[in-house]
Amino acid sequence: MPRSNRHNLARYWRDPVLPGLSLLHADFARHDYAPHSHDALVIAVTEDGGSEFKARGRTEEATPGVTLVFNPDEPHSGRMGRSRRWHYRSFYLERPALAVLLSLTGFDREPYFCESLLPDPALADAFRDLHHALDGPAEPFAVRERMADAFGLLFTRADAARPRNPMPRDRTLLRQARELMQERHAEPLTLDTIGQAVGLTPFQLIGLFRRTAGLTPHVYLTQIRLAAAIRHLRAGLAPAEAAGAAGFYDQSALNRHFRRVYGITPGQYARAVA
Fold it and tell me: Which domains does the chain have, with CATH numbers?
């Protein structure tokens, strides 16, 4: 099959926040990976096209909707095969990063995967969204939440990882978390702070909110902050002042969430109620 004339594009960087985490964004028109291994846990998701890879003596296909996982020091190779394009994103987690993520998700042992290919679209979407968030400007709370969610889902698929405690199902915990958000929404709250206040890991906190409120903690906190911003706008504060008083990262964050929820900008709202 004739190949495309497109050039290979690849960008590799170290995450500035989480030590031991490296990331790759690649868009290949032609490329073969010789057999190799990494001293890190490797997770990869395909955005477009695909490739063939070989690991554990088997040849399988990486396509959108599946997640590839290679344990540290596990040999594997890859080739384009039938595909004209392989556009993918990958994570490389050395032990310092793994230790942080195990704490974040509440697992007590390093994961070991007996399968390299995990055909789970929700898992692939979670890692694709996380990679995009780490590849550009994003709210720290949202990034932390996506990180806990993606790796928590992944670690539950491992054969050697076990959660320290079962995930609580208690509406009392939700009420406590909501009250804390209401009282301290103007502060730079973090997922870890809220979780510690109610005795949950960030991953457990996400699960609690999804089961009982139908929203993630970040979305719930954003709703509280939007309601506060509206109160400040009605009181005569300028949008930039209302953003800070409500706890938003900056005015652009307020503008983005306000338009997404209400269909207008904070400035339009302020002029309407003036």
Answer: 9-155 (2.60.120.280), 170-274 (1.10.10.60)
